[in-house]
UniProtKB/TrEMBL annotation, chain A:
Lineage start: Bacteria, Pseudomonadati, Pseudomonadota, Alphaproteobacteria, Hyphomicrobiales
Topological type in the membrane: Multi-pass membrane protein
Record InterPro entries: BP-dep_ABC_trans_perm (IPR050901), MetI-like (IPR000515), MetI-like_sf (IPR035906)
Domain ABC transmembrane type-1: 72-262
Transmembrane domains' residue ranges: 12-33, 72-96, 108-129, 141-160, 181-209, 240-261
Main location: membrane
Location in or out of the cell: Cell membrane
Keywords tagged on the record: Cell membrane, Membrane, Transmembrane, Transmembrane helix, Transport
Keyword Membrane: yes
GO cellular component: plasma membrane
Gene Ontology BP, a term: transmembrane transport
Family: Belongs to the binding-protein-dependent transport system permease family.
UniProt-recorded name of the protein: Carbohydrate ABC transporter permease
Automatic annotation (TrEMBL), chain B:
Topology relative to the membrane: Multi-pass membrane protein
UniProt protein name: Sugar ABC transporter permease
One protein family per Pfam: BPD_transp_1
Organism for this UniProt entry: Pseudohoeflea suaedae
Transmembrane segments: 12-35, 64-94, 106-123, 155-175, 208-228, 264-284
Cross-referenced SUPFAM superfamilies: MetI-like
Native organism taxonomy: Bacteria, Pseudomonadati, Pseudomonadota, Alphaproteobacteria, Hyphomicrobiales
UniProtKB/TrEMBL annotation, chain C:
GO MF assignments: ABC-type maltose transporter activity; ATP binding; ATP hydrolysis activity
Domain ABC transporter per the UniProt entry, residue ranges: 4-234
Membrane topology: Peripheral membrane protein
Protein name in UniProt: ABC transporter ATP-binding protein
Superkingdom, taxonomy of origin: Bacteria
Organism whose genome encodes this protein: Pseudohoeflea suaedae
SUPFAM superfamilies for this protein: MOP-like, P-loop containing nucleoside triphosphate hydrolases
Amino acid sequence: MARRVPTSRKWLVTIAAWAIGFLIFFPILWTILTSFKTEAEAIASPPSFLFFDWTLDSYREVQSRSNYFLHFYNSVIISLGSTLLGLVIAIPAAWSMAFVPAKRTKDVLMWMLSTKMLPPVGVLIPIYLLFRDFGLLDSRFGLVIVLTLINLPIIVWMLFTYFREIPGEILEAARMDGATLWAEIVHVLTPMAVPGIASTLLLNVILAWNEAFWTLNLTAAKAAPLTAFIASYSSPEGLFYAKLSAASTMAIAPILILGWFSQKQLVRGLTFGAVK
Amino acid sequence: MATAHSRTAARFMIAPAVLLLLAWMIIPLSMTLYFSTLRYNLLMPGMEDFIGFDNYSYFLTDPAFFAALTNTLLLVGGVLLITVIGGILLALLLDQPMFGQGIVRILVIAPFFVMPTVSALVWKNMFMNPVNGLFAFLTKAVGLQPFDFLSHAPLTSIIIMVAWQWLPFATLILLTAMQSLDSEQIEAAEMDGAGAFARFFHIVLPHLTRAITVVVLIQTIFLLSVFAEILVTTNGGPGTASTNITYLVYAQSLLQFDVGSGSAGGIVAVILANIVAIFLMRMIGKNLDI
Amino acid sequence: MGQIKLEKVTKAFGNTQVIPPLDLEIEDGEFVVFVGPSGCGKSTLLRLIAGLEDVTSGDIVIDGTNATALPPARRRLAMVFQSYALYPHMSVKKNIAFPLKMAKMPEDKIEEKVKNAAHILNLTDYLERRPGQLSGGQRQRVAIGRAIVREPAAFLFDEPLSNLDAALRVNMRLEISELHQSLKTTMIYVTHDQVEAMTMADKIVVLRAGNIEQVGSPLDLYRSPNNLFVAGFIGSPKMNFLEGEDAAKHGAHTIGVRPEHLRVIHGATTSSGWTGTVGVIEHLGSDTFMHVHLDGDRGTITVRADGDNPAKVNDKITVEALSEDRIYRFDKGGMAIR
């Protein structure tokens, strides 16, 4: 039973919230705007906010001077590949932990979580040397493996919390209704599990897309995803604001859009179900 | 409902995940541990000798280590302070009735989805650059001398960047927790004569304690490993002014090729992270009722 | 047909025995209610019959065939769950059709049967909706629909009304009773609510801690309870119990009188009654319930008087049993003395 809130107060809150929201979003907005400017306009003083000649030149330049789409492609392959591989490994594990819990299930889950707490720098050297010796440095395959492993605990946990919410009574009802194990999986379990699997996929693609420790340390050029590609702008190309902005906009746009769809799952996934 | 058959099947289904993670944890970690006891430089292959704890005493007595440790603590502490307090205030604001709440939420959450290298470069060049940056323009507009953030306050600048990235995370989790607060509790407190401040401190804040703890612990895990932001902005400098432990280990092993002391540093980082991890695991474990 | 026989059935979870050896016979077409306080094993018993739990020992015989080892689907039983257990991703139509589809019935026959069931249950307008878009009562009906299309040997209901509000509960109670009258199929119904048991059952099975305390028709249990537990559990408000001197007078360890079997005598005292002070009075309009604190700290008893009884709080009154045979007598072990 919500009470009537005085309209004046509601407006005040609205203005304050929008102002703060705008301020927080501003660096992103500014990047997007700058990407449509020429280099000269990008560093003009005073800077122009909306009234400049909108142009796509910077986007064209970024592609022609560096193989932007190769890095974009790398990002897609690495984030999607590691997530799918992770799901293939995690679904059976989460499944059996949720539906056939044993005494040690909790310990196994907690232990999996603890591997996520391992700071990457603690294993940087051996991984680097192993990759060097096995010829995996600067390969998409190598990164897919590493990102699968670092995100596996999160994937298992998220799936586990989703699967656990499928009520056992429904499975029993299916059994009473004469469903075979196969029919139970196809007609009842899978349709109910798909939303959870989709959310897990979404969040992990985001995490893998933005991962910036292993991608920076294990790639050079050929397999570099966007994180590493953007890092190459640190100097001196970073001073070409319009091009930096265009490259950045293209790198963050897909994830920004995916991310807005996954707000709810984000909380659950990143807190391992501790906050819902 | 669990029969012996399904238990066996379950074990087979868990096995790949467990074995892979076990390998991922044990093999490299024991290699790091082993390297940390060797004199091992990539530029001088074949000269590896066992030297016991020398790498540790070298790493721990290096003044760079103390600088890095201090910087790490300042970075983690500073970002936590900004994001938790800012997150609570923002969550309180966003929890109020307003127009376009959904859109404001989207605006506030957006920075979390920006990859670290992009956010670092955008802040470094387009905002903090002393010549062409937006901050420089603003300071000049009010007649002040532009401030060169990254050379004169490198650590603070990095704290600002990282806080901007993590503020949405804290806000989102605290807002979610706030929305799970039973409105009848607030109404009961109101009936009991509690004012807005009393309600916040006696009802809302205690309700948020758990979410705040989770935010602090999870952010700490990630903040201990801040790397890309430092790599693309300051390279740890000037001097060691913005080097944290993660970056120090990286520099020792992959820039100076001193695998031995880099490994010792890696082990130190693992120990530091474990101290935090133990608390976090207890929190999450308590919540897990199987 | 739907005759179910339990022979020396036991169930243990680990070392805890929840059902001691138990025998029970359910006749074809009977409406049997398992009733008892929570944790008495009534749901476990139902799930054993359904095949959702394995019996530890003993046999379950359905229509003359031993079904102990049969999987749930092959026992020809249908179950309505407490949470309804509807498939959230399927429309009402698909939910009801699911068991038929699993039985590989031809499409046109499924269509016809679903239509029929929907008609009986007033669901025709909702066939395309998802369970999430239905009210509690409608969901309940879908769950029943899913059960009746299979034309099972018996229906099993696991506390099906406990998630509904009071008014709806009374309605659904009636609907299920009507369904039973028109289908004449065996029904086994689990509840903790003795009112549901009394109003619906042909036969009530009162359970406590896995033991059958008494089996009988509702009126049997009301009129001649075997022991203190059944006497206290059946009937509302609860039967009054008195011990000590009052009981000894009747040659028993405990005596019990139902509130509706007491009569109020204002002021005057008689030798056969109990005097006391009126405490709380509950007016229901048709009846008045009075809680009388007996003199000499002998406890409180509840009396049902008619709606226009003039008694007020703190009045001194005397109550007495309508007749001597309305006083139930129990021995030291709580068993009825007959």
